[in-house]
Each structure stands twice: as structure tokens, then as C-alpha cells.
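Example for tutorial group B:
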């Protein structure tokens, strides 16, 4: 029998007198086996676990489930067409052993030991027992090289062909009406892309304000002083509550806009206006309270 391995020590093809056996595998494990005998092809689809052991083998006519002991011995009947079994390694049906490390060492799952000593023993990674499999801990370790066991999570490296993020092609939105509040800005053509620059150029700066609110709130004076509010506290409070209504209505709407957008700048201007009005109302209320205290009759001693 001739064996052909890939650069990552994965078995690729076996050829004998009766036919050939090919293996479809990645770094995450074996996925399929293709057996060819006298121009007849039998394909087996494999399902593996975290340790890369085959749990299910399915062909076009049959499906077989497998169960292994922690050392790799399987109790149920295995179809002889399968060659990769425990931890995804090749099983030799003639002598009931696994060829680990590209055939470097033979491992017998029934005896739970190797036939030859580990070259890393007894002072290296192989441990004190030169014939032990995975240093006596096959539940947490896997030995694919035939030299020293590694943790199963380390052995099952990520498959770059699967874990690699695919390239995402972004296409412009076609013929979607962009709405803002009650006003529809425009419908973009299929060749145009919606961007912040488009929104900036097409969004009306004062379309969200009613004329009455625009007159009282948006047209802010150059200076803020108490002389502006000659109509009394009622006018100040009415303008203040109109500003609050505007802020509450548009607070969520401007979150997605850029900071230099006209609507954002208008929102900040109204917000500052509201703060000034609130301060003015607070001062006027305090002045009324102080005047009431001054006019109150003195308490009898």
C-alpha cells in the first residue's frame, strides 16, 4: 500500500492493488472519504466531534453511527470501507492499530498503548511512561503526532476556509423614499448612494418647526438678557414649554445625523435657549418669593 500525505501531515490518498482511497479534510477534521474499486465509487460523508473522531458515516444507501471508548476502542461493528476513525487517524484493519505521526508509531486501542517507545521519554514531553497514550489522559488530550498529547481544543484548530470573514459587497439602496418626520426629503435614484452629505444637502433646516415655534424659539437674539422678555413671565414660560416640546420631539431623530448637520446645530441652539429660559424663570420665581416675604407682615413676638 502506498500512502500520500499533505504538508500538514493529513492523509490524502492511499493506493493498493484493489483500488484507491481519497480523503477530503481540512484543519478542522475529516469530512468525507471516497473509495474507488474497479471504477466503482463509494462516498462516505463524515460527522466528527471535538476530538475529530468520526461519530457518523453516511453513504447513499446506509448510515452508521460509531461510539468509541476514551482510548479509541469501538464496540459496535464498523464498515470496513472507513479508514479514518478515532481522532481522525487512519485505522489499519489488518492489525487493528492506528498509524500516528504519518506512520511513525503504531497505537493499539485495545491494549491502550503504543508498540514502540516515545523518543521524548522519559525526560521530555513524552512523560515517564514511554508507551502510554496521551500520558494516561485521553479524555482531555489527543495525540496526532505519536510523540506527545495536546489538548483537544488546541488540536482542533480553526479552519481558515470557514472562519475567514467573506467579502461583503455593498450596493446602493434603490428607489427608497427617505422620510424625516412628516416631510419626505426625496427619492434617490438607483445610481446614487445615500450618505450623510446627501442628507445634509437635502434636509430642510427648519422643516421640523411649526411657524409659531420658529417665531418664538428658533429666531434667537444676539444677546440674552431680562430685557428681552418684556411681555412678562407668562411669555417666558410659554416659550420655554414650546422649546421643551421641540427638544423631546426631535431628540431621537438627530442621533444618526453628523455633528455639523443644520438640524443638529439648530437642536443645540434651541437647547441652549431652553436652558436660558429655565434660568430666567427660576430667577423670576425667586424674585417673586423674595418680594412676597418682604411684603408679609412681621410675625408677632
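The residue assignment follows.
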Amino acid at each position: 500500500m502506498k500512502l500520500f500525505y499533505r504538508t500538514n501531515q493529513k492523509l490524502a490518498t492511499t493506493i493498493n492493488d484493489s483500488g484507491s482511497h481519497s480523503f477530503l479534510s481540512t484543519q478542522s477534521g475529516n469530512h468525507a472519504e471516497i473509495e474507488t474499486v474497479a471504477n466503482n465509487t463509494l462516498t462516505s460523508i463524515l460527522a466528527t466531534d471535538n476530538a475529530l473522531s468520526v461519530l457518523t458515516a453516511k453513504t447513499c444507501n446506509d448510515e452508521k453511527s460509531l461510539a468509541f471508548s476514551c482510548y479509541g476502542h469501538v464496540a459496535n461493528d464498523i464498515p470496513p470501507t472507513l479508514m479514518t476513525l478515532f481522532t481522525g487517524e487512519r485505522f489499519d484493519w489488518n492489525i487493528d492499530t492506528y498509524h500516528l505521526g504519518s506512520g511513525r508509531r503504531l497505537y493499539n486501542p485495545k491494549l491502550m498503548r503504543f508498540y514502540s517507545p516515545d523518543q521524548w521519554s522519559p525526560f521530555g514531553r513524552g512523560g515517564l511512561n514511554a508507551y502510554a497514550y496521551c500520558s494516561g489522559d485521553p479524555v482531555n488530550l489527543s495525540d496526532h503526532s505519536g510523540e506527545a498529547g495536546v489538548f483537544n481544543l488546541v488540536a482542533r484548530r480553526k479552519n481558515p476556509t470557514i472562519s475567514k470573514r467573506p467579502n461583503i459587497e455593498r450596493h446602493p439602496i434603490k428607489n427608497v423614499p427617505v422620510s424625516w418626520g412628516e416631510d419626505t426629503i426625496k427619492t434617490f435614484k438607483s445610481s446614487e448612494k445615500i450618505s450623510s452629505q446627501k442628507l445634509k444637502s437635502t434636509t430642510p433646516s427648519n422643516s421640523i418647526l411649526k411657524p409659531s415655534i420658529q417665531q418664538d424659539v428658533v429666531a434667537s437674539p444676539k444677546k440674552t438678557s431680562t430685557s428681552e422678555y418684556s411681555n412678562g413671565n407668562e411669555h417666558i414660560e410659554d416659550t420655554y414649554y414650546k422649546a421643551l416640546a421641540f427638544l423631546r420631539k426631535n431628540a431621537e431623530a438627530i442621533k444618526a445625523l453628523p455633528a455639523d448637520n443644520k438640524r443638529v446645530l439648530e437642536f443645540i441652539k434651541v437647547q441652549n435657549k431652553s436652558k436660558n429660559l429655565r434660568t430666567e424663570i427660576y430667577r423670576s420665581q425667586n424674585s417673586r418669593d423674595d418680594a412676597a416675604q418682604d411684603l408679609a407682615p412681621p410675625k408677632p413676638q
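The longest strand covers residues 29-37. Compare this with the pattern of hydrophobic and polar residues in the output above.
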